[in-house]
Specification:
The protein is of the alpha/beta class and 545 residues long. It contains 17 helices and 16 strands. The strands form three sheets. It has an eleven-stranded mixed β-sheet, with helices on both faces. Strands 1-2-5 form a three-stranded mixed β-sheet, with no helix packed on it. The protein has a two-stranded parallel sheet with strand order 11-12. The chain starts with a helix and ends with a helix.
Amino acid sequence: MLFPVLWAVALLTATAVPATAAQPGSPRSTGQSGAVVRTDHGLVRGVSHGAYTTFDGIPYAAPPTGPLRWRAPVPAATWPGVRDATTPAQRCVQMPAPGASAALGSEDCLYLNVTAPTPKPAGQKRPVLVWMHGGAFLGGSGSDYSAEQLAVRGDTVVVTVNYRLGIFGYFGHPGLGSAPPFGLADQQAALRWVRANAERFGGDPRGVTLFGESAGALGICAHLTSPTAVGLFQRAVLQSGSCLMSFPRGALGPGTPAYEPFASQRDVQTAGAEASRQLGCPAGGGDEVLACLRGQSTDRLATAQLMQSFNRPAFGNALLPVAPDQALASGRFHRVPVILGTNHDEMRMFVGLSLAAFPIRTESDYRARLEDAFGPDAPAVEARYPAAHHPTPALAWATVLTDRSLTCTTLAAGRAIATHAPELPLYGYEFGDRDAPVLAGLPTNPGFPYGAAHGFEMPFLFSSLPTERPLTDAQRALSDRMVDYWTTFARTGNPNTSGAPLWPLLSPSSPLARSVQSLAPGPGGIHPVDARSAHHCAFWDRLAR
């Protein structure tokens, strides 16, 4: 089950576009000016913006509707003439907003968007960046992210992807057997499309960098450990999500259970059998029950309860044979250059969303949350993080969760990679702008600044994300530097650029092996920092034993 705060995270992600997103365009010729590119399925016409051209709503797989619901993606049909690629397709179905009567989006949603600099390079191919959006595997869309800065300043081709969400993307049932997590299978289908078509947009199909944030990063973690992803990407950037990420009991509200981002195939099938019963379908696992389930309306399936019951990709199948954390710990991952990163105040976003319902006003409130989360270890955690050492008890609680759930688990994932592949180019960062603009839609909590919270680095890479205010001059300079780092990594497997502060390697042989690159505006804002010590990771390692 997904918790209400994560639902709010998904809805927050969905605020970037109007609720009335355009329907996917049918194949047709248009009179609009713009470049025409021949893909492997037909011609598409985009929109020229001078220094770059966009191609929106390109199908990379057939609509997963009717008999294709809860099946692995199959190739899209070819089309005659020139397909209009000037308007994004609908987002994949997401939960209805509170008070809404219908779900947002469409099951016909397996489309992607391409942003490419103009003109195409002569005699060379640009690196390709493929973005997987976040949203708790429940919300978001590739079209929320305008990639012109990465494309133009970084001279890269950028692809943003829609993939199935919630019950449509992560449902399981005994009748489906060991089917893969459909949303992750969609992502791999999109990567196969990129491999077949990148060169047609000026990109290098053998120079693909997969990058994503939150649930998008968790998906990339899965692909790093997936045997069916071999050869589909050559580098990876994981922003605020790793194979070891987890939340303790009570992290998202008193009494909420612990959260692990992946689930066993058996658990997902058990949940699917219960959902089938609730929907009035026959018991068992034969064709009759699957026909009943595939006959349900979109709105009947896209309830908050059902969507939240299926947002954890299953392992124990061909795409994910074992849990990604176990695969990483045993060295079963693709040897590609990796950047792992977190934000300094990650969990302030989650805590800030929940404070109205679950206030933390006093040290007693704080202590109760610690006891709920850590049981007999609560006194040790309080001794390490006394409320008196923080401006408020709520900020102390957010600090505990940031260190335990995201920063230290990400650094531990880096250690696992470095242990099994010490020769691998591996880098870490911590986004540290404590005055970053607040993402639109977050509530204001007096005395609770968001700082460098979860997702707050994204407007520094994508200009389209709505925030409370624009970037300052110093923040725009940081944005330029981050774009340079990300796109240089996509080009070379190394983020370091001439004249910029150097990134330390997360390698046992590096003298700065414990350090990640702090990314903050202003003089000296970019520098190596010992995040492991700053976030008390040795303490959390001992507690986990």
